Amino acid sequence: MMLSGSQLSTLFGTTTQTVTLSAPERFTFYKTSLSSAEKETARLKKDPAIMRDMARLDRVLAKAKTPADLFKDTEATRVILQGLGLADNAQNVGLARRVLMSDPSDKKALAATMPDKRWKAAAEKLGFASTGLSTLRLPSTRQSILDGLVDYKRLTAIEEKSQAVSDALYLRTMSTTTKTGVYDVLGNKVLRRIASTIAGLPKELALQEIEAQARTLQRGFKLDDLTDPAKKEKLIQRYLTIAEDKSSVQAPNFGFNI
């Protein structure tokens, strides 16, 4: 009788192994993720964890009198940041408070001067500086945060299996109508990883002054490709081909523990 993987795991236990995905495996996973995106999105919109996150935000928002009150609750802040595409800053509540409460229409304000344009886009969507909590309380804003949270959870699950595929899907959803500057790329960890990989740049690049990083990156990566749909697709294909992509998987442990 042949035993299944789960039966082997029960008998012998499991161990975590790190495997390097091949380019064909990445391409297959990428295509599968694209084809299942709609179904997975529908499932996640009913996911209990996401529903709890949105309920937490609703409760905090119902009691809050000012935007500053929201930032007193780190979980509500996390939900907002994840929903607005700033999940990598979810632990930096102090920075989020200062940036998102500043006026993005003021050229000297933090929201307008941050190198990463995601901050300005988030500040504009929330409108804290001009409308207080009114804009966040709109059903359309809540829906936007929910959609962003669902997308974040979907990409996070994919990233656990393949960071390169998650990066590629992130790049694919980026608008091609907005020009992306070199400092936008350097300030966004996913774009930075993609651009550095395609340009063949070492991780030590981060040790250089920001101006030097910008000059080096521009020599090996064409920023205009990000605003051309056809060229962007070629970037994705190249990235999936050359990215070093490792995944941790559970495999049966056939050894004996002494």
Q: What value does the Rg take, in angstroms?
A: 21 Å
Question: What is the string of helix and strand elements?
Answer: HEHHHHHHHHHHHHHHHE
Give the N-terminus to C-terminus distance in angstroms: 28 Å
Overall shape: globular
Characterize the largest beta sheet: strand count, sense, and whether it forms a barrel. 2 strands, antiparallel
What low-confidence regions span 5 or more consecutive residues with pLDDT below 50?
1-12, 250-258
The assigned structural class equals: mainly alpha
Residue fraction in strands: 5-15%
How much helical structure, as a percent, in the residues? 55-70%
Mean pLDDT: 87
Largest sheet strand order: 1-2
- Number-wise, the strands total 2
Number of helices: 16
Quaternary status: single chain
Brief summary:
The protein has 258 residues and is mostly helical.
Descriptive report:
The chain has 16 helices and two strands. The protein has helices at residues 5-12, 23-35, 37-44, 48-63, 67-70, 74-83, 93-100, 110-113, 117-126, 128-131, 139-161, 163-173, 182-187, 189-199, 210-220, 229-242; strands at 14-20, 246-252. It has a two-stranded antiparallel ribbon. Helix 2 crosses helix 16 (229-242), helix 3 (37-44) crosses helix 11 (139-161) and helix 12 (163-173) packs antiparallel against helix 16. The longest helix has 23 residues, at 139-161. The radius of gyration is 21 Å and the shape is globular. The model is unreliable at 1-12 and 250-258 (pLDDT under 50).
